[in-house]
């Protein structure tokens, strides 16, 4: 047998992931009658029309349709009406289903009412993100390589940020999770000191334990605190929001950014690393946005709303930031890095 390469194995696992996610979209479409409603409509339906037809929560239907468009299950016209792609009706067995509807026509109406997706799609009531030590550990592991992203994909293009860290700054990491990035930054930049805050108490407990074990208490301090409740004032030279801006709930985001602005000293910089999210439907098939689209699909029930570049810029300007510098990072530009100034 020919030697298997690591790239082939990565591709294999990525294909499994993609298949799982696309199947989830299809199953949800079946479960709540969305695919059926689309199969019945010759002209196609907008997400608002679907919401009225099915009496379901429109913001979720919009995310579902955009994700199904991303996976090329649906197409769309210029009026924003979604239609099944050619042959999908037959391949998914919808033609059989529409001709002989099941005994209980709206079968999904009787589905598990305590299921978070069921509740969200019918009422718009979001579920709190599930916080447990295991969930925090998993998030921490997933983001373990953030220091590599900074050292090899960001700082070589932003020399002045690296220089500041080398010379010695006080940096605030907002949404520090289990503190991995803080610990790695403290290792790389010995003249700097760090404060991390996060709303997840389990993440902060783990960060605190690791900081103590590594003897870094004199340079890193962490607190269980919401970004929107911070009261720091003109204390930090730099701040960071790493994979966190999209997770701060939309109603809290303007306040959280205003508090981040207040926490910085004059000429301080806020660094933001996050998934780019498309502002136009045609970009929902651009691979650069894949992470953002999939994250949005699964995080919608927690009330998380990803924002596009223009919405990010508007929020940052409203919070008082200036000089927005943006670049695409990592292979395929699947993350965006922004650096903004408090002047
Ligand atoms: C995807 S994780 C990223 C964690 C960390 N920055 C990293 O890269 O490993 C997003 C983090 O944002 C935190 N978060 C979400 N909303 C928050 C808020 N309003 N205030 C503070 N932290 C928040 C979550 O608890 C979570 O730890």
Broad structural category:
alpha/beta
Strand order of the largest sheet: 5-4-3-6-7-9-8
| Fold-level CATH name of the largest domain | Rossmann fold
Number of domains: 2
Largest sheet: 7 strands, mixed
> How much is the average pLDDT?
92
Count, helices: 15
Q: How does the overall form come out from the CA principal axes?
A: globular
The CATH class assignment of the largest domain is Alpha Beta
Q: What is the CATH homology-level superfamily of the largest domain?
A: Vaccinia Virus protein VP39
As a whole number of angstroms, the C-alpha radius of gyration is: 22 Å
> Which ligands occur here?
S-adenosylmethionine
Low-confidence region ranges? none
Q: Helicity level, as a percent range?
A: 40-55%
Gross CATH architecture of the largest domain = 3-Layer(aba) Sandwich
Order of helices and strands: HHHHEEHHHHHHEHEHEEHEHHEE
What features would you describe in this structure?
There is one protein chain. With 343 residues, this protein is of the alpha/beta class. It has two domains: 6-123, Winged helix-like DNA-binding domain superfamily/Winged helix DNA-binding domain (Arc Repressor Mutant, subunit A); 133-342, Vaccinia Virus protein VP39 (Rossmann fold, 3-Layer(aba) Sandwich), CATH 3.40.50.150. The chain contains 15 helices and nine strands. The protein has helices at residues 6-31, 34-40, 47-54, 58-70, 88-91, 94-99, 116-123, 133-142, 146-154, 159-167, 180-188, 201-213, 253-263, 290-299, 309-318, and strands at 74-76, 82-84, 170-174, 193-198, 220-224, 236-242, 264-274, 321-329, 335-342. A seven-stranded mixed β-sheet has the order 5-4-3-6-7-9-8, with helices on both faces. Strands 1-2 form a two-stranded antiparallel sheet. Strand 1 and strand 2 (82-84) form a beta hairpin. It is globular. The relative contact order is 0.10. The structure holds S-adenosylmethionine (SAM). S-adenosylmethionine binds at residues 139-140, 143, 146, 175-177, 180-181, 198-200, 203, 226-228, 242-244, 247-248, 252, 256.
